[in-house]
Amino acid sequence: MNGDKVRASNSRWDFNPGLAFNLQENAPKRRLDAVIVQQSFKVAVETKLSDWFHEDQIQNHLDVFGEEQYKVLMTLAPVHILISI
User: Fold this and answer.
1) Beta-sheet strand order (sheet of 70-76)
2) Percent helix, strand, coil in the chain (nearest 5)?
3) Is the overall model pTM greater than 0.90, yes or no?
4) Per-residue model confidence as pLDDT tens digits over 45-71
5) What is the pLDDT of residues 17-52, one digit of tens each?
6) What burial letters (b/e) apply to 31-65, b meaning 16+ CB within 10 Å?
C-alpha cells in the first residue's frame, strides 16, 4: 500500500496517507531491515538475532534520515543489551 489512495464506496473525498513500508532498504554503507516513512516522519528498524550492534553500523544507519520532523532508529534484539555511555 505504498502511497495508495483509500476511498470508501460512499465517500466524497480521497485519503492518501502517503505512508510507505520498505523492507531491506539498501545503500552503500548500510542495509536496514525496514523503514516506515511519511513526509513528516521516518522510522528505521534494525534487527539482530544476536546481542551485538556495532557503533559504526548504527552511525551509518543514521544517514537514512533527511528533512523529516520526527526521526526514530529502532533496534531490536532477542536479548537485553546494556549500553554504557
Assistant:
1) 20-27, 30-38, 41-47, 70-76
2) 10, 40, 50
3) no
4) 888 888 778 888 888 888 888 888 889
5) 678 888 887 777 778 888 888 878 889 888 888 877
6) ebbbbebeeeebbbbbeeeeeebeeeeeebbeebe
